[in-house]
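Quarterly update, task 2.4: zinc ion-bound model.
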Amino acid sequence: MTDFGQFSLPGWLVLPLAPFIGSWLGVVVRRLPAGRRLALDRSGCEHCNTPLGPAALVPLCSFIWQRGRCRHCGVWLGWFYPAIELAAVAVAAAAFCADGNGGQVWIDAALGWTLLCAAWIDAETFRLPDSITLSLILIGLVVTWFLNGSAIFNHAAAAALGYGSFRLLDMIYFSLRKRHGLGQGDAKLLAAAGAWLGLAVLPYVVVSAGIIGICIAILSRRTGGLRGEQMIAFGPALALAFFLLQITGVALF
Ligand SMILES: [Zn+2]
């Protein structure tokens, strides 16, 4: 357990909390890109609008009890909510295993959950919302300021370099191929990685994300999800590299 001033919570608490956070991330993924209001929980069945009962608000368990169907109209609710709830548990488990220390587990898990949300939205819509990427840049600088104030200029420079390098790469790619290779959202997400991780780790984020991106592209092609010149979203690869480097604290490759 670590004291962050008045803030003192055991790290293991992220694990039982994770399915509930995952359920709420599902709401954000469904509503944020559509510009809908973000409520605290799922309001009801998306098919018949029946409000969820208290049991249905317990993530994962309710899915198993009701075999993935709405208790009122029986419509199949799909894998989306259990999948994002399980992914949120995986993020919490990774954050907890990497560092059992209370405060750091909470910081890592909160970053991981935010990145999970951004990556999921990018995979579905090819857009990384500014509300997430710009907040991550700001929060990364604030966290750096509180935990290691002397590194603030290094991390601010890494944020600027991260953004600038991806914008430059995209301009070069555009002049050669007459289409965009990397989105503005990717540049802002790399800036956030710079703000959190600093200059020395930034190249590892880019290299790791590239390797993960190539693996995702090969897997998608094998499973028939990707054809010909079709684009893949780079956000998920970048988010995963960012999270892994944050929790391990060392360069992976
Ligand atoms: Zn229903």
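Highlight for this quarter: The pocket of zinc ion is lined by residues 45, 47-48, 50, 70, 72-73, 75 (CB under 6 Å).
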